[in-house]
Amino acid sequence: MMRDGAGEMAPGTSHPRRGLPKILAAISGGLALMAAGSWGLEKALVGFPEHPATVEGIERELGEATPAGCSWARVLAWVDSRGLREHCSIDSEQDPTQSARSRGDDGTGASSERPGGTIRVMIHDTSRSLLVRGQIQVEWSFDARDHLARAVVRPINTGL
Known about the structure:
The chain is an alpha+beta fold. The protein has 2 domains: 14-47; 55-159, no CATH class. 35% of the residues lie in helices and 24% in strands. The chain is built from 4 helices and 4 strands. The protein has helices spanning 16-46, 55-65, 72-81, 100-103, and strands at 88-91, 117-128, 132-142, 148-159. A 4-stranded antiparallel beta sheet has the order 1-2-3-4, with helices on one face. A hairpin with a 5-residue loop joins strand 3 and strand 4. The protein starts with 15 loop residues before the first helix and ends with a strand.
């Protein structure tokens, strides 16, 4: 800062305190851009999930689509509607998609060959971050009469 003999500031210079708000504004703006840019950079690096979903959202959907007491066929219809059959495992003695007559049911709705069973489905790529990829596992358990006894929805996180 140069002053001429009369105590005035030389042309082209400014008072140190007048530039401080501009510097703080520039720093604040830069930090805001970096924060927004890092989120955008993360999404650019990892992309967006193929099947965005939350555990709560799946639980709500299942409450309507596959309520307690529903059949294997209704659960498998939901699995097929989501295109998840290839990610499905069925734990039972026989294929639950066969008709009741071909399975040898006794007319009461209870299968004579197996009590209950389980269907598990993994919904892949429901969330992503730089270090973690999220999946959601759904497990339906059936009682001895082949009615849905319970459905459990869990988040599964794995590293990239």
